[in-house]
Amino acid sequence: MAQLPANTADAFHRGRFWLVQPKDTGHRAGADALILAAAVPTDFAGRLADFGAGAGAAAMAVVSRCANAEAVLVESEPEMAHFARLTLNHPQNASLRERASLLVADVTLAGEDRERAGLGRNAFDFIIMNPPFNAASDRASPDVIRQKAHVMADGMFEDWIKSAAAVLRSRGGIAIIARPQSIGAILAAMDGRFGGAEIVPVHAHAERNAIRIVVRAWRGTRAPLSLMPPLVLHEGSDNRFSARAEAINAGAASLLGD
Amino acid sequence: MAQLPANTADAFHRGRFWLVQPKDTGHRAGADALILAAAVPTDFAGRLADFGAGAGAAAMAVVSRCANAEAVLVESEPEMAHFARLTLNHPQNASLRERASLLVADVTLAGEDRERAGLGRNAFDFIIMNPPFNAASDRASPDVIRQKAHVMADGMFEDWIKSAAAVLRSRGGIAIIARPQSIGAILAAMDGRFGGAEIVPVHAHAERNAIRIVVRAWRGTRAPLSLMPPLVLHEGSDNRFSARAEAINAGAASLLGD
After folding, report:
1. Among residues 208-237 of chain B, which lie with CB inside 8 Å of chain A?
2. Chain B residues with CB inside 8 Å of A210's CB?
3. Which residues have a Cβ under 8 Å from the Cβ of B180 and sit 6 or more positions away?
4. Is A16 touching B (CB cutoff 8 A)?
5. Which of A151, A193, A227, A228 would you mutate first to test chain B, the one with the most B CBs within 10 A?
6. Does the interface ipTM go beyond 0.85?
7. pTM
8. What is the pLDDT of residues A117-142, one digit of tens each?
9. pLDDT of residue B5
10. Which domains does chain B have, with CATH numbers?
């Protein structure tokens, strides 16, 4: 770990937790992690896993807001796992430390490999995930490359959501933040595994297309899907945060009012 | 046709077209048909089919607003086809009559059966559809019945969208209005056939869950999906139509601004 990049420690939830993360890369956590964390009900009590936790922003935001939550940061990339460890050991996070831990494991493992990696069946009450975007599919590119990226991204959701279903107890929850264009792949991967999906579109501005979706659902139910009112992050000519976005950023509100 | 139920003739688009439909059944057309029709670009020029046209509200709304559109009302149920005929022959629709016709055919036919029924390959530039809801899945019911209804509804979208793909020219458009819970089945059926999907959530009120979605997409493209700002139908304490809903009801605006 001698070659680790420069890092920063940044306050979130108005200083209730701190995140240690690389200073100059594209991995830096922000609004997405806080919105994802807000999909966990405030009164959630139990064991949560953050799949692909990175430096730990979403998981720490859950334990910060939900007093009875325990979180396991699941990260396979050594460099990001190291930052997750630095986050957990940061002195300002001491009061949260006993409810958060790190598991270095690849969430795309299956079957016995997954169990051996520490991701046992029925071991969790809630899974949150912010799967890495495939940046290639955002760029202008020939149809063939774009289609390949599309298939890769679809396969990723299938792998991640299948693993989530395997490690969740019955009626356990899942929450995902992703780009709107992934909605089909997410719902296809949830089909037969999760029900009662609630989709929240996230718009930077009310009059523009959604930049993210949050999908929350429940293991082993067949309740119908709901499409919720959107979360609008910015409003007004001065581009300030909306009151709702401000409350989510501050760890003072859940996304779905529970 | 001696046993036809009582009917009414109702003005739409501020009297620019009239609809003859049964008086006392659940088949009566309304806001859904007008919103669906609004998904067709105003400058659309070409041949459109309205799959499951009923009495013809959506198709007539298209020819009423889009001066260069021709519409084929495709309906298999004899009673509803009769009402479609009455609509086409209504004296108040005389100016639209030469751009609208009826085809009595089942859109779920496949292959040569579909072609023999008059739904030829590459025969259309745009398809609109408002597939019948399976009311059973809305009622409280045992999981088994609900799951069966779910599977039936999913199969219906696959059948209808597959037929639409077969009869559309390359780069032709499709627009569907449906319940939000059908979004997964719709996107699954579109996968590999249609691209560039634009989804518009439709909310009766801004603060409540969506009651409908409109999905518009294009045959044979691989452009990514967009989730658009919602259409909100009612606003204010007096529950009046929003300006946007009013314009759509009046045939004065398209849904997607084109």
Report:
1. 208-210, 213, 222, 224-230
2. 226-228
3. A199, A225, A226, A227, B201, B209, B210, B211, B212, B213
4. no
5. A227
6. yes
7. 0.92
8. 999 999 999 999 999 875 444 444 45
9. 74
10. 7-249 (3.40.50.150)
